[in-house]
Amino acid sequence: MNGLLSMTETKKGYLIILFQSINNMEKFEAYRQLAAPVLENCGARFLTRGMPEKTYEHGQSERVVLLEFDSVAAAISLYESPAYQESLKALGDGAVRDVRIVAGY
């Protein structure tokens, strides 16, 4: 195991969802209903969610979600889990999102 990998394994993981648009509120609500218990069961912690107070540079005034996990591996595991993938199927083309998983310091 290299040093970089072991450092990443011990750091908190963050799932960042930047919405570019929400095209269908019914699909978005269906996604939220399915995703909420999955997020709760995996120990995800909402640090923030909602509309930006202010945007700069090329920022879009669209919904943002920031979730904290005990590790990067936990964040990846949640995103790739069958249960979360089912919630994404419900969302379908109801939203355009930019999703990233990053390690904390």
SSE ordering:
HEHEEHHE
User: Major sheet: order of its strands?
Assistant: 2-3-1-4
| Low-confidence segments | none
Mean pLDDT: 93
Rounded to the nearest angstrom, the radius of gyration is 15 Å
Structural class: alpha+beta
- The tally of strands reads 4
**How many angstroms does the end-to-end distance come to?**
20 Å
Q: Helix tally?
A: 4
CATH topology: Alpha-Beta Plaits
Shape annotation:
globular
Largest sheet: 4 strands, antiparallel
CATH architecture descriptor text: 2-Layer Sandwich
CATH level 1 name? Alpha Beta
Number of domains: 1
Q: What is the helical fraction, as a range of percent?
A: 40-55%
Structure commentary:
The chain is α+β, with helices and mostly antiparallel strands. It has a single domain (24-103), classed as 2-Layer Sandwich (Alpha-Beta Plaits), CATH 3.30.70.100. The chain is 42% helix and 30% strand. It has a 4-stranded antiparallel sheet with strand order 2-3-1-4, covered by helices on one side. Helix 2 (25-41) packs antiparallel against helix 4. The longest helix is centred in the first third of the chain and has 17 residues, at 25-41. The radius of gyration is 15 Å and the shape is globular. It starts with a helix and ends with a strand.
